[in-house]
Amino acid sequence: MVSSKPKIRRRAAGGIAAVVVLASSLARAAEGDAPGAQRQSAPEPWLYHAPLAVAIAHEPLVIEARIEHPELVRSAVLVYRTGGGPYAQVPFRRLPAGDYVASIPAEQVVEPGLDYAIEIERPSGARVAAFSTPADPQHVQVREEGMDLVERALERKLEGRRSELTARGEYVSFGKSTAQVEGPGGVLEHQSVDDRYYRVEGAYAYRPLRAVSELSLRAGVIRGSAPVPVRELIPGQDEGERFDVGLNYAAPTVRFRLHDKWHIDGSLLASVTEVGFSAGTGAALHIGDPRGSKFSVGFETIQSLAAETSFGTRFFTELDIQAHRRLRVSPIIEVSDMPSAEHFGVRLIGEVGVDIGHGFSATARTGYQARDVTSGGVSGGGSVSYAF
Asked: Which of 23, 94, 131, 329 is deepest in the core (most CB within 10 A)?
C-alpha cells in the first residue's frame, strides 16, 4: 500500500544534512494510485535540498537543489512569498555541473522574512510538492545589515526625498580696498578699488545614505572687481577693466559617512574663462546631524593654470542650530581672498533656513566683510531648494 504522505528522509550529502524527498511517491498519490497497488521497480526521481533559514536583506537569495533521475522530471519550480503575500514562482535552471538553482530577486528579499517551497512537474503534467508545501512552507528570516538600518532610518527622516535641486545667489561687497598699480616709469602706486562680486549657482544632490552619504554637482558664475595684484592686461582688455574678475565653475562633491555624527566632504573645482583654465579642490568636516544641528569646518581653493595665479582660497566655520523642526539658524565665519584679491578679508555671515514643506525650503543670508580696517561692506543672498 502506498501512503499519500510525502516520504522525507535525511541523508548526509557532502557532510551537510540534506532533506531528501521521494517525489515519485507524491506523484503516485497525486495521480490517484489505488490502495494496494504494486510498487514499480522503475527508477524514481529524488530531490536533495539543504533548507535555508536566514538570508541577508536586499541580496538575491539563491536556492540550490540536486535531482536524481532528472529525465523523469519535466521541470522544477520554486514558489515563494514575501511578508505573507501571494505566492510567486521561479523555475529552476540546470547548471553545467548538474545541480539546479533558482533565485529570488533582491528586491523581494526584505524584512521580516519570506516563505518558500519546491514543486516538481512529472512527465504526465502532474505537479507535486518536493520540499515543503505552500500551505506549510519553509520560513526564511531576513536580516538587514547595520548600514541597511541606517539607510532606512535616514530615508524616513527625509520622507523618501533623496534628490534635491537648489538655486542660490549672493551679492558681496568688501567696500573699498587698496590695490597696487604700475604708474609712470614703472613706479608702483596705490589705488582704491571697488571690492565686490556677485555669485549665481545651481546644484543637484542625490543621497545614497550609505558609506557614500551624498553626491552633488554645483555649477555657477562669479563676476565682480577686486584689488588684484599687479598683472599684465589680458589681450582685448582695456585699463578700465584691469580689476575685473570672474569665474565659470563646476564642482562635483562627495560626502562620506564616517559615523552617524561624522561626515566629510571632498570636492573638485574646474573653471574655463577668457583667462584660461582653472582647477582647485575643497574639503569639509561635519560634526553632528547632517540634516540638523551640526558644526562644519572646511576650505576651498582654485588657481588659474594658464596664468599661474590664484583665484583665491577661503576657510570657513559654520554652526547650524536647529532652533525648530522647520527653522535653522547658522552663524558663519569665513576668511577669504576670493576673488583674486591680494589680501585676505574676514566675513561674518548669518543665515536662516526655513522648511516650507512638501519638499520646498528656502534660506536667506546677510553679513558684513572687510579686507581693510578702514573699509567694509555688506552682503546678502538666499537660496530655494526642492527635494523629491
From this structure: 23
